[in-house]
UniProtKB/TrEMBL annotation:
Required cofactor(s): [4Fe-4S] cluster
Domain MTTase N-terminal, chain residue ranges per copy: 6-126
Alphabetic keyword roster: 4Fe-4S, Cytoplasm, Iron, Iron-sulfur, Metal-binding, S-adenosyl-L-methionine, Transferase, tRNA processing
Species whose genome carries this gene: Alsobacter ponti
Protein name: tRNA-2-methylthio-N(6)-dimethylallyladenosine synthase
GO molecular function, one term: tRNA-2-methylthio-N(6)-dimethylallyladenosine(37) synthase activity
Transmembrane segments annotated in the record for this chain: none
């Protein structure tokens, strides 16, 4: 490598794992001479980190590639080269097809090959159009360099760490088993080393990531097989780490590998584990759950939620829903609405079913018309929004711990998160990023909460007598 530094801009779509991967790609390119650019316009190398989960997400790549090509033309007029990389799940699913559909792509690289980025770029320099969508024998995690302390610091006090990747569940609608491959878990020692490095750079909260994170079964530091619950306990014990979260979970794995409900117990016993559970259910109809190959019923789901609430009564629930799955009748959809009413979610994501090539559901009859999907989605989202607003309103008047994360929208304000993942805005005062402060929630504003520090409140009371 020449001594000359270049810049890279990674634009990420889709899930939190992609956001984590984007950082790791930037880290992988740092030793090869790339600094992170603040904007795509300034970058010598543009990486699109793509999502394949729904058709709309996947198609976005091609419109974005059009824009990047325009950018490349403008930069060329100024004598600057621009490399274009397509990474992520569309790269994995479509591979060389991307080169055929879109001109100008230098490299297509799947999620398991990010550690090879420097050498792949080198290859692409002499022969643009390199494709690497292998599932290599070696783990990318062993080979990916760690971020520098400065980089980690710049990324904030809350960090993601992938602990598990891939999926063996094969829900009939889903591309993940094909794009991210079979389920694998990272060894606990590697995860804990990463968490320690993060903590030393000032990180206070880690979110453990996996497509099926509660199916985690990695090699423990004692040589045994560790469950997610065991891993959470070790992560929570890392000096500096005040908060631990995990996402995304499958209902089938909540009981744990030994059926001992250890993860649920962790919600009761580990104070650092935040009282929030994202547990996708997808549908409230047993018929549709069976057609989706979810392998659980609506009652199974309700019983799991009950157990978690028994262990941690203030836990906030969140979920994912799909409306308009093939064969979904009005009655099936009503079952979903009723389940949402019964559970009461703090937040939830909902999507129209999107047919994905190669998945079993794509072959199913009784497709649901777009207009019906639109109607059902609107009804479900209205209900979810109401529950979200109710949940936030119920926090008003209470005092909660807020992890201060970043500058607020208004001057003098900072913004942070409650234990229940609610965004809270407050006057900064002497609070620094990474502090956990006691905040009285005074009101709600749109999608966040407003609050005042208890210390500031006490001071004002003293002043006014
Ligand atoms: N169509 C619509 N939504 C989907 N999801 C996954 N696959 C599809 C699909 N084919 C949703 C599920 C999943 C979330 C990440 O995306 O709700 O939990
Ligand atoms: Fe999208 Fe799934 Fe890939 Fe995440 S893992 S980017 S949700 S397809």
């Amino acid at each position: 490598m020449s001594g000359e530094r270049k810049t890279v801009f990674v634009k990420s779509y889709g899930c939190q794992m992609n956001a984590y991967d984007a950082q790791r790609m930037a880290d992988a390119l740092a030793p090869a001479g790339y600094d992170e650019a603040a904007a795509m316009e300034d970058a010598d190398l543009v990486v699109l980190n793509t999502c394949h989960i729904r058709e709309k997400a996947a198609e976005k790549v091609y419109s974005e590639l059009g824009r990047v090509r325009e950018l490349r033309k403008e930069r060329a007029l100024r004598g600057l080269d621009t490399g274009i990389v397509v990474a992520g799940c569309v790269a994995q699913a479509e591979g060389a097809e991307i080169l055929r559909r879109a001109r100008g792509v230098d490299l297509v690289v799947g999620p398991q090959s990010y550690h090879r980025l420097p050498e792949l770029l080198e290859q692409a320099r002499s022969r643009p159009g390199v494709v690497d969508t292998d599932f290599p024998a070696e783990s990318k995690f062993d080979a990916l360099p760690a971020a520098s302390r400065d980089r980690t610091r710049a990324r904030g006090v809350s960090a993601f760490v992938t602990v598990q990747e891939g999926c063996d569940k094969f829900c009939t609608f889903c591309v993940v088993p094909y794009t991210r491959g079979a389920e694998t878990s990272r060894p606990a020692s590697a995860i804990l080393a990463e968490v320690r490095r993060l903590a030393e750079a000032g990180v206070r909260e880690v979110t453990l990531l996996g497509q099926n994170v509660n199916a985690y079964h990695g090699e423990g530091t004692d040589g045994g097989d560790w469950s997610l619950a065991r891993l959470i306990r070790a992560v929570a014990a890392t000096p500096g780490i005040a908060r631990v979260r995990y996402t995304t979970s499958h209902p089938l794995d909540m009981a744990g590998p030994n059926g001992d409900w250890e993860l649920v117990a962790a919600h009761r016993d580990v104070p650092e584990l935040m009282p929030f559970l994202h547990l996708p259910v997808q549908s409230g109809s047993d018929r549709i759950l069976a057609a989706m190959n979810r392998r659980h019923t609506r009652d199974d789901y309700r019983r799991i939620v009950e157990r978690v609430r028994e262990a941690r009564p203030d836990v906030a629930l969140s979920s994912d829903f799909i409306v308009g799955f093939p064969g979904e009748s009005d009655g099936d959809f009503d079952d979903t609405m009723r389940l949402v009413e019964e559970i009461g979610f703090a937040s939830a994501y909902s999507f129209k079913y999107s047919e994905r090539p190669g998945t079993p559901a794509a072959e199913m009859d009784a497709k649901i018309p777009e207009a019906v999907k639109t109607e059902r989605l609107a009804a479900l989202q209205a209900l979810i929004e109401r529950q979200f607003q109710d949940f936030n309103a119920a926090t008003v008047g209470r005092t909660v711990d807020v992890l201060v994360e970043k500058p607020g929208r208004h001057p003098g304000q900072v913004s942070g998160k409650s234990p229940w993942l609610q965004a809270v805005a407050l006057e900064a005062g002497d609070a620094r990023f990474g502090d956990i402060v006691s905040v009285r929630i005074t009101g709600t504003g749109g999608h966040s909460l407003l609050g005042e520090r208890e210390a500031a409140l006490r001071e004002r009371r003293a002043l006014t007598g």
